Amino acid sequence: MKKVIFRYLSCFLCISLLLSIIAPVVSASESKSEIEVQRQCPTIYVHGFACGNIYENIGTDKQKQVWPMDSDTIMTAVKTAIPPIISYLLTHNYAKFEDALVEVANILFEPAWNNKDGSIREGTGILWSYPEEIDTENTIYFNYDWRKDPTEVADELNDFIDYVLEKTGEEKVAIECHSMGGVIVMSYLAEYGMNKVHGIVLDSTAIYGAGYIGKLFSGDIVIDGEALYSYLLYAMDETDAEIIVDFIFDSLYAAGIYDIVEFLADELIKRSLERASKEVLIPLFGSWPSIWAMISDEEYEHCEKYVFETAVADEIEEYAGLREKVQNFNTTVRPYKDEIISNLAATNHFMIISKYGYSMAPVTDTWKIMSDGTIDTKYTSYGATCADVGEYLTDDYVAQHESLGYISPDHIVDASTCDYPDNTWFIKDDKHSNNTDALNELKQAVLFGDTPVNIYTYSEYPQYMIRSDGDIIPFTEYEKPKINILYEYGNFMRCVREKIIEMFRNIFEKLSSVFEIK
Question: Which residues of 194-223 are buried (b: 16+ CB within 10 A; e: fewer)?
Fold first, then answer.
């Protein structure tokens, strides 16, 4: 049963994987330092993927939020799903069951689809307008429809920057960007250059992609129970639900009944994924040019070929506009990222924030790659060497590189291989979506300090920090566990399962002898 639950939950994650790249959650932590820096220009914050609600029928009496979907939509999907599930269990009519799965996915996601040419559907979008007053003492938020082509959003960002500069009388802005916001900023800088930019903070950005997106867009979907368990613990970390997840999964595994239906579950997933990819995954996520911009450089070419020449080959003319948008980003922005970031670093007001400690989305065979739960740490740090989840850099590696002074206390990350090691800060056990308010004063010092700020400037903000009880504190000491937690968890649950089965077997034998059951 455990594997069945794993597979069905993971299959759903294949459809909704990118919801994890969501709006930053304000941290409860408070600043403890006394760093005092005066802002020298306005600061604009560019958020990441799915950070603004999407509406349909905008400006009419039928206006409705469609992303995230409301409870009525979710309940409609659930009610639609229940009858075919019951019918399938009774009749094994898989065709009707598969039709129902596609219908449910359409109910949930279809309103947020783009047109097949990658353009935004008429009447849909976000609700946002420029602020009438600009408060230069606080960060100014730029909002945008995250389904759009990043190069189109870059034009919108340029207009907004001009608006802020005109309202404030300043000549430049500082920029903070998070997740996909980094892609938007790269697109802006590729088109408009550095003239209006004073400095930048790159917080957990997707500039160099997220590994699992490329895997999914090349049809490389792998379901793994251990991966799902690890990811759910990430999702429930620091909540009471973490205990519930442990209890449910432990109980399901210990029951030992999954073998009966494992083969059936495997067949259902295999038969559903191809159709789900063609009719749901690609029309939804694949129709958003923004997602294509977050495919890693090494995966892009293969993904483009797979999607347009295999997955939707019979509709290639309808998808021609989308492919043109994707290729435009690939030629006008992607090749110049290194140069753009180098120019940003030269401003001396430059900061990279990278997080680690969590596994990736459990839908590919790369789930163990070290990440912040959403984007690979090697990408958000621009090159850090990282051990996989549950593992450590080898003793030989540490011995060869430790003298450089960039290896994390837990021997998981080596920042010496980053493009900008002295400007890259790491936070362990901090999720991708957390907006680390505890670092706000450091960000301000980087952006507006009279002298350049790096990982050596402030003792309270060393290169490696860790999230602890809602706060961000220096990470200086660590005792390596003597066991591999994920491996030992599997061994432990196998023992629990065997003990419980043995217990029930003994109970049944005693009952059989009492009631003479044969």
Answer: eebbbbbbbbbbbbbbbbbbbbbbbbbbeb
For 245-266, letters b (16+ CB in 10 Å) and e give: beeebbebbbebebeeeeeebe
Other beta carbons within 10 Å of 391: 15
- Residue 68 preceded by cis peptide, ω within 30: yes
User: Does this model's pTM top 0.90?
Assistant: no
Interacting residues of 480 by C-beta distance below 8 A, sequence separation 6+: 392, 410, 411
Query: Would you state the structure tokens that stand for residue 167, as one six-digit string?
Result: 């309202």
Per residue in 295-349, pLDDT (tens digit) is: 999 999 999 998 999 888 888 999 999 999 999 999 999 999 999 999 999 999 9
Residue type, 48: G
Where are the domains positioned within the chain? Answer: 1-52+126-209+225-270+325-480, 490-518
pLDDT value at residue 20: 45
Using alpha carbons, list the distances in angstroms from residue 378 to 206, 274, 292, 346, 384. Answer: 11, 30, 19, 22, 5
CA 135 – CA 148 distance, rounded (Å): 28
